[in-house]
Design a protein that fits this description.
4 helices; 65% helix; elongated
Length: 118
């Protein structure tokens, strides 16, 4: 499934990378809202922090492969170690697949805005 498509949770296709980041962050927040154990919450917050770091790199015009790799690793830890509802686990597994696809096939960075003298 292409990251450029609008997904069932309403992520915009105008910026597919930010749409994927939004979707992943929303899924992690949903999982966090149901987590009770401090160690599970800590893992989720660590994953969200890595996703935010990747977003910051992307929005500054850099494809942060290392940040994306860290985000993928942290989300995988949440999926493998946290007690999750099957639906939430499936959503995070799908997010992982899309993030891995993004890492394998990075998109072209948007062109920098032109700065011309008038």
């Amino acid at each position: 499934m292409s990251i450029a498509n609008r997904d069932s949770r309403g992520a915009s296709a105008s910026d597919p990378v930010n749409a994927l980041i939004d979707r992943t962050d929303n899924d992690l927040e949903r999982v966090r809202s149901f987590a009770r154990a401090p160690h599970e919450i800590h893992r989720i917050l660590a994953a969200r922090a890595d996703v935010a770091q990747f977003r910051q790199q992307w929005n500054s015009g850099t494809f942060g492969d290392g940040e994306l790799a860290e985000a993928i690793a942290q989300i995988r830890i949440v999926v493998n170690r946290n007690l999750l509802d099957a639906h939430d686990r499936d959503r995070l597994v799908e997010d992982l697949a899309r993030l891995q696809d993004l890492r394998t096939h990075p998109p072209r960075l948007p062109a920098a805005p032109a700065t011309g003298a008038a």
